[in-house]
Design a protein that fits this description.
By secondary structure, this protein is of the alpha/beta class. Helices cover 50% and strands 15% of the residues. The chain has one domain: Aldolase class I (TIM Barrel, Alpha-Beta Barrel), CATH 3.20.20.70. The radius of gyration is 17 Å and the shape is globular.
Length: 228
């Protein structure tokens, strides 16, 4: 899939499931579950045992509509291994400029982790496609995204950390283009007890919140325009 299509898929769905699991089989179950729940995107973090092999398997034999990415990518070497395995996008928890440059050169989408305005400016100038604001919850959550949108209205933010069913709408209202959701969607207990239906149900709930919030914002925006 080309980079533009990857970007469009992430923007359209609005949720990037962050899959951390204690085994390769759990990671595959989680990827299938979020896909069945209507989110055909899976960010397999490098903290999953055998993560690169999981990415390779999902890219080759996973659901055909599933967009497979790699998370917790810390350096160029890891990025190269993930792309070779078939990852369509890369996500880093912090800003590593050589990795951003590598992704840009490879023509692959990267969500670069950044937290401060200085890091955000550096990541954007280096060619990051999205800025993953992490850990966002600890920095004030949706209020922090809203504050960042003031000086950076054109930068697409994806907050991660602190996103759950009760805060998701606030993050979208604050101007986030999508949400990175880990343990609040891919519940560890659902994987441990082999109950993927829990993850499927949460995926549907998160999707519904994003859609409803966006619809409300669009209709209020249209109403504001027509009143002028």
């Amino acid at each position: 899939m080309d980079k533009q299509k990857v970007r469009e898929r992430i923007l359209e769905i609005g949720i990037v499931p962050v899959i951390r699991a204690s085994s390769p089989s759990e990671a595959r179950i989680a990827a299938d579950a979020v896909c069945l729940g209507g989110i055909p995107i899976a960010e397999i973090t490098m903290t999953v045992p055998g993560a690169v092999e999981v990415i390779r398997e999902l890219a080759k034999a996973g659901p055909s509509e599933l967009l497979v990415g790699a998370g917790t990518v810390l350096n160029v070497e890891a990025a190269r291994r993930c792309l070779d395995a078939g990852a369509e996008f890369l996500v880093s928890p912090g800003l590593n400029l050589p990795t951003v440059a590598f992704a840009a050169k490879a023509g692959k989408l990267i969500m670069a982790g950044a937290l401060t305005p200085t890091e955000i400016m550096a990541a954007w100038e280096a060619g990051a496609d999205f800025i993953k604001v992490f850990p966002c919850g600890q920095m004030g959550g949706a209020k922090y995204i809203k504050a960042l949108k003031g000086p950076f209205p054109e930068i697409p933010f994806i907050p991660t950390g602190g996103v759950n069913l009760s805060t998701a709408a606030e993050f979208i209202e604050a101007g986030s283009v999508a949400l990175g959701v880990g343990g609040e969607l891919v519940h560890a207990h659902a994987l441990k007890s082999n109950k993927p239906e829990i993850i499927i149900e949460y995926a549907r709930k998160f999707l519904a919140i994003v859609k409803h919030t966006r619809d409300q914002m669009n209709s209020s925006g249209d109403a504001a325009k027509s009143s002028h």
